[in-house]
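Methods — Computational structure assignment.
A single polypeptide chain was analysed. Its primary sequence is given first, followed by the predicted tertiary structure written as structure tokens.
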Amino acid sequence: MASIGSILYIDPLSFVETSYDGKDFGVETDKHSFIGSRVSYKDIILHSFKVSSTISDDELKSNVEIKMYEYAGLDLQKQYKISYIKKNIELDDTILIEAFAIDTQEIKESLNGVLKRKKHIDFLAVPFLAFSTLYKNKIIAPKNDLFIYIDENEAFLSLYKDGEYLSSKSVMTLEDMAKKIDGAGIKISAEELKNHLASKGLDATLYERGESALYNELETIFATMFTKINDVVVYNRSIFGFEKIDRIFLSMQNGRIVDIKKFMLNFGFTDIEVNDFNIFKDKVESDFFSNIVTSYIYDTLETHDFKHNLTIFKREPAFYKKESGQTILAAVSIVILFLVYIGYVSYENSQLEQHSMLAEQRYAEVKKNEARHQNSVNVVNSELKAAVGQKQHQEDRIKNISMSIKKLENLVDIKKDASSFILKVNSLLAKNSLATTSIELLTKDELSVELIAGQAKRDDIAKFIEDLIENGFISVKTDEIKSDKDVYISKIEIKK
């Protein structure tokens, strides 16, 4: 798979910029680098529902849009970007669909700070899906993991089973916590609370005597939060069928909450590994979640997986790819082609004029020499005609000679066959001591023999006939056998 180079991620809340090239963070970027950002969790409208596992993709897409407008409260007067995730559950004949949408107008306002820095966003990520990059890049092994992110204006959990996303839920933001603490008569801002949790957190020993009320409020807040988290885990366990959570990854933007692991153990999350988001090999001081989202966006761009890309701020295509640019380029191309054509036609006309002048000169020379050469042509034609006649005469003579030779060869073959025929019959006559009055060759394959024999030789005629048959003559016919003064005369026709 070809590398996509480097990408630049801009966080929509802190505006922190993070660059990445698939191996290292903090690399150089240029105008060709992809730009990524994400939507805030609070800007996402979520709705889950079940469908048949046999539903087609086209039907599902339409179903998602209908369900979101009917049950998720989408406004028909507004525009939304909608996507969804398929999730397998224990029931074989159904699947769980988690659909999510963003209001395009609200997102334009939320990402105004990002768009002031860059004119486009190639990939706009959904935050709770970003943790999949940790498994894809083998930063952590697939287990049952719970990711909890808490910031001033955003806080959510994301649950994964064996490296696959299951569910997400909002939790209290630092702003919400600060308001709740303020309601108890303790003045603290979200920024101050963030720093306080990073320095003292839930470790009671770090709080001074005058801060006990603050500690008690924080303890109550986090107890309530983890009660909700536990309910979410139990609910998902019943749907997706896993035993327990193996690891919890919890971070604020600037790191882990002090003593949160001990607090969770006391709350009932036993035998659970607790980490923050600073888990890449290149450790950073803050913005851990930005690194995770940046890596996730890089993965999706590299694999061209855009099904969960919510961007509505696409990069302006190159001038030659725009419709207006293509129109202008087409017009310019036509003008250039027209000018080239005119130049070509002018050049061709000039060449044709030169060729015409040369042709006229050549024609005048040819006409001048035509009469002089005509006599020579007539003489050559006469000689050629005579040569052709002589050639035809010679070919006829050769043809006649060839036919004569073939006839002679056939005649020789016939004579040869006849001689052989007569010699064979004559040898059989001699064998049987028979005399003949005549031997007549009827055809090349037929012979007539007239025999003469005394009283003592009449049986030899019969033996002669037998010898003829034994020697392969196919037809032996005796026309007559007669006796004349004790002399037998027999005419035999033989066919080989």
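Note: The first strand starts at residue 7 and ends at 10.
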